Amino acid sequence: MEKVLAIVGPTAVGKTGFGIQLARRYDGEIISGDSIQIYRGLDIGSAKPTKDELSQAVHHLIDIRDPKGRYSVKQFQDLARRCIREISEKGKLPIIVGGTGLYIKAALYDYVFFDEKEEDNQYEDYTNQELYVLLQEKDPAALEKIHINNRKRLIRALNIYEKHQKGISEIKAEQEHRPIYDCLVIGLTCERQELYHRIDERVDRMIEEGLLQEIQSLLKQGVSFDDQCMQAIGYKEFKAYSEGNMTLDECIAEVKKDSRNFAKRQYTFFKNQLEMQWFEDKELAIETIDRWLNKGKS
RNA sequence: GGAGGGGUAGCGAAGAGGCUAAACGCGGCUGACUGUAAAUCAGCUCCCAACGGGUUCGGCAGUUCGAAUCUGCCCCCCUCCA
Q1: Per-residue H/E/C for A17-75
Q2: Which of the listed CATH numbers 3.30.70.890, 3.40.50.1980, 3.40.50.300, 3.30.230.80 matches domain A3-110+179-209+259-294?
Q3: Which of A32, A119, A195, A279 is least surrounded by CB atoms within 10 angstroms?
Q4: Of residues 126 to 155 in chain A, which lie within 7 A of strand B by their beta carbon?
Q5: Residues 266-285 of chain A in contact with strand B via CB under 7 angstroms
């Protein structure tokens, strides 16, 4: 089995820098496990590695989409797995670095996605109650994990059933829920309070570095706040400002808050969805990685 | 000094005698997660040895079977007049 190292953790803990350090130490290449840094032009707000950082290690899956483009787990899974194969074939270590939990899990674990075309909107006019009842007929087991208020998931589960004549719960039941690689997942963490402090500082720095101008230029290119890429934290909050409904300072405070909440959700996902180890101390993490890499060698 | 308005849980803000440990919002915490995931959604949030108990609505003293809600005094805050 191919070895894959993954570095995960909440936003602003320092994954980017650590990833580069590891790529250099182990002769690896970085696969970005991030759903926003794929967009060209979303640099500052997505905390994309700088030009300088990009030059210090080979990075994959960054700047691969136009801001008007769409992206999904399935695409990430395909691309990331191809990167893993190619990097391994070169005799180098693939290192996934990122904070998008679902993407990383889908690439590493035996998740199965089918080829699908455009999403249809046939359920748009249904109430949640109606969707719930429909799903109860088609895939009742899926309801164990989907709350009636979670409209998006209800519709998705129904769409899956329509397209494959098989419920999402059945598809999941056919999987083993195990990684398909020999992988080591390292979670980088720090005290909550310190993390929140780092988030605040980073947001302030983004503003200084010209986040507003970045958004301006995206809008000028024809990107709108309704586009997928603009759902990102650090971008969507400025819609209210641009429409005059909030002051700049209020929007900046929103970005900080959304980032904090996001960091918490990331913790929850990684902690409960992945088999992994947390490290506050990078040196200890490196020791663990050393041991893992040497495992099986004579 | 005078006239009004006000002090409610971390914050904002309802409530105006029992149905109130106190609506709602925010913030915070916890969790779910298989195709927009930086998304979407759920629960908890006065204290405790907790299907029960203990303390609350500026303070103290009253009225009442019963008070955050009524009365008196006191302390703070805001606006206006001097």
Answers
A1: HHHHHHHHHHCEEEEECCCCCCECCCCCCCCCCCHHHHHHCCEECCCCECCCCCCCHHH
A2: 3.40.50.300
A3: A119
A4: 145, 147, 149-153
A5: 266-269, 271-273
What was the ipTM of the complex prediction? 0.93
Is A45 (CB) below 7 Å from strand B?
Answer: yes
Predicted structure pTM score = 0.92
CB of A5 within 8 A of CB of A289?
yes
What is the phi-psi region of residue A244: left when phi exceeds 0, alpha when psi lies from -120 to 50, beta otherwise?
left
Residue ranges, CATH 3.40.50.300, chain A: 3-110+179-209+259-294
**Cα–Cα nearest to A148, from A129, A125, A169, A124:** A129
